[in-house]
Predict the structure of Class F sortase.
Amino acid sequence: MTRPPGRVLAAVTAALVALPATLLVACGGPGAEGPAATPARPAASSPTGQAGRAGQAARPLPRSVPVELRIPAIGVDTPVMRLGLAPDGTVQVPPVTAHDQAGWYGHSPTPGQVGPSVLLGHVTVGRYGDGVFRHLSRLRRGDRIEARLGNGTTAVFTVGSVRTVAKAHFPAREVYGDVGRPELRLITCGGPRTGSGYADNVIVFAALTAGAPPG
């Protein structure tokens, strides 16, 4: 089975979109230190924020959890941890540590399954400096994202759009809502630095364009 039953998926989606937007994102933790995010060139974005026609869609892949994420255009090569829900029912974020890494939200599809697979990462990690998604806003339409899965397969995604949105207007349904093909969402913080973090979120929308079997 490559996706949750309809009622289960609908329940998970409904729960996600009901959560406060500011608790659905990774921002470097309370009182995160470090320099502000690097200003980025304006990113190409589809009107709806969906992945867009970034390339020929590939067939869905079997369920297999992600273990590594590579984004050559911005120098990301990181292990991937599994994230769940915090005790208050909000989505967890990766811990603020010196060896920062991305996290996959375990109630979303695995990369390559039908639906939006969601990965989160920090832009800064307190006194440790830059986060793994420091330069996420620099991605452009057509850039390549590779998710290596536990079964040895590499799911290859192509960026369709990149959006910077105010946290107060986080598009939860576009990020977490169901879609009819394998897609990927990468989320971090961005925009102006405030006293407690960042004012905006950077969201990358990408679609599966290849699935390389174990080599």
User: Anything to note?
Assistant: Helices lie at 6-18, 172-176. The chain has two helices and eight strands.
